Amino acid sequence: MALLVVAGTTIGLTAHNLGPFSRQQIDSKTLGTQLYICVIALTTLLLAALLSEREQSAAALVEAKRREGRQALAERHRIARDLHDSVSQALFSTILQTRTAEKALRNHEVSVSGPIARALTAIGELTRGAQTEMRGLIFELRQDPVENGLVAAVGKYADQLSYETELTVDVSGPVDSLPISHRAETELFGIVREALVNTVRHADATTAAVRVGVGQEAVHLEVRDDGCGFDPERREPGHYGLESMQARADEIGAALTISSSAEHGTVVRIETPLAAAQNGA
Fold it and tell me: Which among 50, 145, 216, 235 is least buried, having the fewest CB atoms inside 10 angstroms?
């Protein structure tokens, strides 16, 4: 605006024979040159203003995302702390009380195959399964589970699961980062975690294996166990593990297949196209 005012004033004064330029000859070349300079200067200033505004908007957006991320992380930590202090501790206390009751029954020579003993055993198994799942959720909430990559996250979770249960989990995959987005790795980790939790709770398996591979067009992931197997087409009321895995796969455009049969274990396969996974947030 200042440049426009100065240029307009100078041209006006000169055209009326006023100012330091009034004594110089004014012809079409001079006016054309001045007009060209004015147009270029104004265009440059407008572009500079637009770029500056865009940079400020981008910086504000980055800061807003960073602030939102900090708030979300703080909220996740709070939820994880509350779960650990309440639900997780309550489950642990339930396990201890169940073990005490089972020991008392044995000391009084009550049949271990009776209804009370069977009920206590079932309570103990259900509570241990719920505790394992709760600890997995707390682990996922307390930190970014795939901060160091999907394979590292699965390996860490598998070590924790093997320590807490009788299931031995073998994990293999590329050490380098996968060519997919952070969101895709997060969803794949959620699928693996759900598959391993289902193995602990329902498969009665002793070993499981997680394999991660990278092809030219997709990331391939497989979770295999040597458990009792089940019918993938059958949906038990109140069990949402399979639906959760399918929903996570749909979020990143991945293909999920589950193969299982009685006494032959279960295989969960996920194929994640690189193009779709790279477009994730």
Answer: 216
> Residue 18: what residue type?
L
Selection from 33, 34, 28 nearest residue 12 by Cα: 34
Which two structure tokens, joined as six digits, stand for 266? Answer: 């279960």
Asked whether 46 and 1 are in contact (CB, 8 A), the reply is no
Nearest in space to 224 (alpha carbons), one of 167, 175, 184: 167
Query: Of the given ranges (185-189, 228-232, 235-239), which has the lowest mean pLDDT?
Result: 235-239
Comparing C-alpha atoms, which of 214, 201, 229 is closest to residue 272?
Answer: 214
CA angle 198, 247, 181 (to 5 degrees): 100
The two structure tokens encoding residue 23: 């004594």
Question: Domain limits at 191?
Answer: 148-281
- Lowest-pLDDT range, 57-61, 137-141, 182-186? 137-141
In a domain, 137, yes or no: no
| 99 within some domain | no
